[in-house]
From TrEMBL:
<dbReference type="Pfam" id="PF02634">
    <property type="entry name" value="FdhD-NarQ"/>
</dbReference>
<comment type="similarity">
    <text>Belongs to the FdhD family.</text>
</comment>
<keyword id="KW-0963">Cytoplasm</keyword>
<dbReference type="GO" id="GO:0005737">
    <property type="term" value="C:cytoplasm"/>
</dbReference>
<dbReference type="GO" id="GO:0006777">
    <property type="term" value="P:Mo-molybdopterin cofactor biosynthetic process"/>
</dbReference>
<dbReference type="InterPro" id="IPR003786">
    <property type="entry name" value="FdhD"/>
</dbReference>
<keyword id="KW-0501">Molybdenum cofactor biosynthesis</keyword>
<keyword id="KW-0808">Transferase</keyword>
<feature type="active site" description="Cysteine persulfide intermediate">
    <location>
        <position position="130"/>
    </location>
</feature>
<dbReference type="InterPro" id="IPR016193">
    <property type="entry name" value="Cytidine_deaminase-like"/>
</dbReference>
<dbReference type="GO" id="GO:0097163">
    <property type="term" value="F:sulfur carrier activity"/>
</dbReference>
<protein>
    <recommendedName>
        <fullName>Sulfur carrier protein FdhD</fullName>
    </recommendedName>
</protein>
<dbReference type="GO" id="GO:0016783">
    <property type="term" value="F:sulfurtransferase activity"/>
</dbReference>
<comment type="function">
    <text>Required for formate dehydrogenase (FDH) activity. Acts as a sulfur carrier protein that transfers sulfur from IscS to the molybdenum cofactor prior to its insertion into FDH.</text>
</comment>
Amino acid sequence: MSAADFPLSASLLPEPLAPLRALQAQQWHAGAGVQPQAVELAAEVPVALVFNGISHAVMMATPQDLAEFAIGFALSEGVVEHAHECRDVEVLQHGVGTADESCTVHVEIPPRHFARLKERRRALVGRTGCGVCGIDSLAALDLHPEALAAPAWRGRLDAATVLRPFATLGQRQRLNARAGSLHAAGWATPAGELTDVLEDVGRHNALDKLFGRLALAGRLGEAGFIVMTSRTSYELVRKCARMQVPAFATISAPTTLALQLAQEAGMHLWGLCRPPTALRYV
């Protein structure tokens, strides 16, 4: 599958909402006074994900790579089963240059998936949530992923290979280098070569953008593993398991629930990946 399979009406055009905003601050030094300082901050705007004309979710995100974000979200959240089922992706910006800046991403999906999505939305109406993304019961959390394939290359992963992409991940975070507040999700080959890096103020958004980028390039399912600059939350592990990612590495530690999901899926989970050491949780 290639990018040509996705008729993107506006999503691959330059987006007028800038991901970073310039402003003036004050740099304070203990005992040395105050100096004016030009800084940049990461933009964080509401992004509505609209499937077949109905808004499904509004996420606070960095307004960049939003077509990839919508496609990756649809795949990693099980809205669709295959990337080619996301059609006519269109990114719209609203209130550019005002305090009410926002974006809408429209995606057309097959009727059978849309019917299932509507049932999911209807089931949440009027409920008092348990505090986890509007879900009202443990059963609805979907904590039991299917077992992943165990490719031969994964058994050969060692600390040096897992740490290799982290050596250059910071250099590839171009937005974070300027603003200092963005997460990154990267794709690494079985040899540890870092090929793709996507950024966002939200760690889940960065991961979905990465999955969307791979989908648009026809690379879903290729050999490799995910690296991230965030902690390992259960939601990230669940998304990776749904996308059949056999290994996942982050600079921070997982929670017990994240490890439980990884173990059930048969995913190799690496944490505290800070050269020269990394932990593999077994």
